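Recap from last week: sequence in, structure out.
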Amino acid sequence: MSEILAFIEAEKTTHGVAFLCRLLNVARSSFYAWLASAKARTARKAADDALAHEITVFDAASRHTYGVPRIHADLRRRGRRVNRKRVARLMREHGIQGVHRRRRRSLTRPDKKARPAPDLIGRDFTASVPGTKLVGDITFLPTVEGWLYLACWLDLATREVVGYAMAHHHRASLVVDALRMAHGRGGLQPGCITHSDRGSEYTSAEFRWEIAELGLRQSCGRTGSCFDNAAAESFWALLKEEIGTRTWPDRATARAEVFIFIETFYNRRRLRKHKAFGYLTPAETSQRHQHNLAA
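Predicted structure tokens:
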């Protein structure tokens, strides 16, 4: 209908409004009502264009990973009171969408002779205080030089990556190095639970000795059950999608990309919905916990 009314507007000086409306079976009152609202439509179009530009900027800042919920949350954090359906419509019109996760291969190779630690979290991937529950796992990134293995530890209270290590191997020393980093920067409390799968790296004597040395408690999920370590698996899926699935030219380049993703984007800029605090970055969630504890 708007195309017909626009045609009448363009041709009215040649043929007259009454004739065109009668010819196209449009009520003259409808045409004049549409004409009167032209100013409002122009203003609305300009507002949509401005909002679409903001959304494009936020999309680029998120490395083209945010969907509607996080884009909407980012707008609200910056004082833009805008309807979520409007954001969804503009993102759809401009072809902006978040990433979708894929399944990944598992590195877990259990040591049949080792006795695994009990499962101390029972699929409860929440914590009320930082430094009391960590989840860890290993993944790999393809490079022309060969695999680059990455071990991480996430704090379940904040979902912040508090410790990580990278190497050309996935021996026990890799997860030990990541745990030492988590202990040094994560403010781990005595008896903090460190949960992982039953891979041989986590059931090794070297890792268990380090757990005892740091005064932590070890926890292991069942073999072959990704749901027992779902929080770590979810982080790997997120990293693989948002950092981009490709083959890096060398391990140094892959290391640099992982460092940038974790330190400058994931921990400090990527929004996550907290059940009590709303949309915050992991670093902001950690600060909020510290503020509440101090209070």
